[in-house]
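Dear colleagues,

As part of the handover before I leave the project, I'm documenting each prediction I ran so the next person doesn't have to rerun anything. This entry is a single chain, and its sequence is reproduced below.
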Amino acid sequence: MNGPITELADLPEELTWNFSQVFGDSVEATEDIADADIISAVKFNHSGEYLATGDRGGRVVLFERNRTEVGNAAEYRFFTEFQSHEAEFDYLKSLEIEEKINQIEWLKQCNSSHFLLTTNDKTVKLWKVSDRPIRAEHEPENPSGGAVIPMIRRTNATQPEARCKRTFAHAHAYHINSISVNSDEETFISTDDLRVNLWNLAVTDQSFNIVDIKPENMEELTEVITCSQFHPSHCNIFAYGSSRGSIKLADMRESALCDKHSKQFEVEIDPAKKSFFSEIISSISDVKFSHDGRYIMSRDYLTIKIWDLQMERGPVEEYNVHNYLKPRLCDLYENDSIFDKYEVSWSGDDKQIMTGSYNNLFHVFDRESSRDVILHASRDAIEGPTHVLSPMSIGAPEDNVALSVDNINFQQKIMHAAWHPERQIIALAAVNNLYLFRQ
């Protein structure tokens, strides 16, 4: 594979990105950012016309794509905002439950209303967002001068309103790390460190445990589940990743309890190269099926791997993301950065992939040419007539690079990102800012 493109003149059209928008307050590097304002989830709906973000304060903000003739078609505008989760306290376990939104999943739109699932560490909620007519107070005329009773009447104006329709709770002993809606649009899975539960969207008081890796003796625990996702078209198939670097494909037709996987995708660690950090950096932080359902993509700390579902012996593609951080693993372990979990996204046509990095950088890889580019999400690209993002180069201090490894800001990181399902638009969460880029 060729190295990252470092010159603007060398950028091919498919890897050229332009600044489009940014939401959120500009914060200086020395300023502290309120923890509640940090974005923790980003998701386009199935058409890409709407974009949802969740933050550590339990809020969900929805944006709507501009469909008017005024402005840019890649432009999004504020639609509505609601408080999805509140901080709670589990008195039985003396445990505080954060309001932070861990993941958002849209249901396919079948009428004018929108439905989406949101989850924090313990509770999944189904929200309905719909336009409600605005009622205005009307005071009738009173020629006689007597008492007047104000009247409430409907107007033609509407405003979006979010209502919690169902709450799915009390099913997880450990923190929920992911949720995924099935292609049948009737069921979804919620996953914690040791279990995967299957829910029906119409039933809140019952779920079915379909994966349980908890050993009888917890001292024998060797791995935890880190993420999961349903297949985009086969409602019986789902995949889940583990902290040991394996992806397991399960088929619900085989048995009610899917502890025995039907396929396993894993790169064995070479004993000669094994180190203290080997298992940590091989932990799967995200798995995503391609839109056509043929491939599955995984992200670990250093790489992205793409697997063909028909071939378990090894990945068909592998992309280096954090190669320049290999000599710094000890420092990253000491400051806990090595445990950061990055998401990965497919483009709408599955020809490109994207993931985030430190210093508000993100990587875009073109699968056909095997070329990649490192770009910086910042407000600098607002200036200029084209708003084109310039490629970055990263390396050791003695190398002739734009950014030295010594100067990387490990507090600024793009861990959550999403790609529009039909257009070349990407959304990135950079701490408290939401960036939108377009081609």
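The radius of gyration is 23 Å. The mean pLDDT is 90.

All the best with the project,
I.
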